[in-house]
Every structure is written in structure tokens, then in C-alpha cells.
Amino acid sequence: MSAILVTGANGEIGQALIRHIHDGAPEKPIITLDLKPPVDAIAPLITNALIGDVTDPEVCEAAAHAHRVDTIFHLAALLSTRCEQDPELCHHVNVEGTLNLLRLAHALGRAYGRVAFVFPSSIAVYGLPAGRNISAPVREDEYLMPTTMYGINKLYCEHLGRYYSHYYQQEADACVDFRALRFPGIISAHTLPTGGTTDYASEMIHAAVQGKPYAAFVHEQTRLPFMMMPDAVRALLMLAQTPAERLTRTAYNVNSFSISAAEIAALVQGQFAASQVSFAPNPVRQRIVDSWPNDVDDSTARSDWGWSPAFGIETAFSDYLIPGICAHYGVSSE
Ligand code: SER
């Protein structure tokens, strides 16, 4: 049986995706790559856990061929705030790592047939003109002028994937089937992000459940699109499974809802009256979020492959975040 390769397996999306794949198809071999051994939550679900660097050309070659990998979820990356601290390291990991995995996908495709390559891109590919308040949801081909190293890398990797899918050495037969999702901020009930700039939303909610005060690093009017982790995983798997003839683009916006930092704080306070949320904007991180759209238009994902989020603002809190995070920390949700 062919296998799935997941890079960045210990990351937030990696952990959630691996659980979901295993629940749906326990017999499907899962090969993972991460800098560290798999965390306990996913370790038993993995067939072959490779430890290494995504930029190493040989790190997963033998295992990928041995297991006949036919689908790659290339999730390993540094996030946007971390990337501004070391832009060249970010370029190395995020771009060289993606190129390395695309090269592997091409070799696998040559040997055994087409390889699906699913890539999480981001709202960071957009760069809004400073000082302009764009309230209309942004479409995929608008405002592609990213201001962060992370966003530049994501946009370039979308193009690299398109090249490997359709134009590699101008060959007629493609070996790689690359598809990308431009994710909004993602919030999980079970894990916390590190080094991202949408992290304030997750940090605020996780702090409140634990009874810890939290100072958000953005101002309260900051409004961004967000999505719950189960919807992000569903989107990845839906896009991976859609027949190629239904796709009209390489990279799709996906969205659930747009919400301000103050609105998140109000929802948290409604549930945990004792929560202490304040706002202490960090100028670097504020500039990053100010360059990203308030909202994105995901109508092409909806019409091409039937995308629709399961959670809206209300149900995200009532049905997923509050019960999930309370169970995670062993706190009563009453
Ligand atoms: N959530 C990511 C970050 O904040 C953006 O895709 O870096």
C-alpha cells in the first residue's frame, strides 16, 4: 500500500492531521519527518518516524521510495514572527526545504506515478498598502505584495509548486500534483503555536482557561480571518482528494470567519469571567498583522471543491474551543 509523508509532524497542523488520517484509515502507512522524535500523542500512529532536517537532500529519500509515498503534506516551516528575527534562516528552511521535497516528489512521480503535494500557504502572501483600510474580502490574485520574509517565501513556494506541477523542464507529463491552501490564523484546542503572528488568539484563549493573565501583542481593533484546527485539517484532506480536473487554480484561499482581537477577548470573558486580557501591542508584530487582510474571499474553494467550514464564530467557541481546551487542561467548562 502506498504511504503518506508528513513533514513538520510535531507542529500543530502535523499532529492534528496525523490523528485525522489515522482515524480515517488506520491501515494507511504514515511516514513523518521532523527535527525531533514524534511527541507521545502521535508516536504510536506513525509507521516510520524520520528525524532530520527538511533541507537535507537525502533525509527521507530511501524511506519515501521504500514505502512508495504517493502523497506529501509538506508542513515544516518557520512562522512569520520567527522569520523576521532571522530572515535568512527562514528562507533556508522554508524555501530550500520546499524545493527539496518537490525534488523528492518529482523523483517519486517519475518512478511510480503522480505524487500529490499539499502545501499550507498563508494570508501572509498578501501585503496591503500601508494606511489603506481594505474591508472587502481579498481574492487570490489581489495584493500579492508581501512585506514579510515568511510571506515572500510562501508566495514563491506556491510558484515553485506550480512549476513542478506544470512546467518542470517544459516536459509534457507532470510527475507532481501540487496544491496549496492559503490559511488564515488557525486555532487549536490542544496545541499552541510558536513564532507566528496570529498566535495572540490561541494564547489569549489558552491563558484564560488556565486562569492566567494575558497581554495581547496586537491592538484590540486588529481584525484577521481565523479557522479552527479541525476545519484546517478537513480543508487539507478535501483539497488533496479533489480530482485534478475540478481545480482551476494552484493556491486557494480558505476561511471561516473574520474577528477582532477585542471580540475574541469578549468571547473569552463571557465564558471565563475572571480572565484578565490586556493589550500591549508589539510594533514589529503589529506591522505584520496590519499588512494582512481583515478578511479573505474563499468562494473559488467553495465552488471548485465544495469547501465550507464546519465552525462559525459561535460554534467555534461553544462546540470546539471551550470544551476542547477545558478537557485539555482538566478544567470545568461550567
Ligand atoms: N499563522 C501564521 C503566522 O502567524 C500565518 O500563516 O505566522
Number of helices: 11
Q: Largest sheet, if any?
A: 7 strands, parallel
The tally of strands reads 12
**Helix content class:** 40-55%
CATH domain topology of the largest domain: Rossmann fold
Order of helices and strands: EHEEHEHHEHEEHEEHEEHEHHH
Q: What is the terminal-to-terminal distance?
A: 46 Å
Within the largest sheet, what's the order of strands? 3-2-1-4-5-6-10
Task: Give the count of structural domains.
Answer: 2
Mean pLDDT: 96
Which class of secondary structure composition applies to the elements?
alpha/beta
Basic shape: globular
Query: What Rg do the Cα atoms give?
Result: 19 Å
Note the quaternary state here: single chain
Quote the beta fraction.
15-25%
Walkthrough of the structure:
By secondary structure, the protein is α/β, with parallel strands linked by helices. The chain is built from 11 helices and 12 strands. The chain has helices at residues 12-24, 61-66, 80-85, 87-112, 149-166, 199-209, 229-241, 261-271, 283-290, 299-305, 313-329, and strands at 3-7, 30-34, 48-51, 69-74, 115-122, 176-183, 185-187, 214-216, 223-228, 251-253, 257-260, 277-279. A 7-stranded parallel beta sheet has the order 3-2-1-4-5-6-10, sandwiched between helices. Helix 1 (12-24) packs across helix 7, helix 4 packs parallel to helix 5 (149-166) and helix 6 (199-209) packs parallel to helix 8 (261-271). The chain starts with a strand and ends in a 5-residue tail after the last helix. It binds serine. Residues 79-80, 122, 124, 150, 183, 185, 196-198 line the site of serine (SER). Serine binds next to loops.
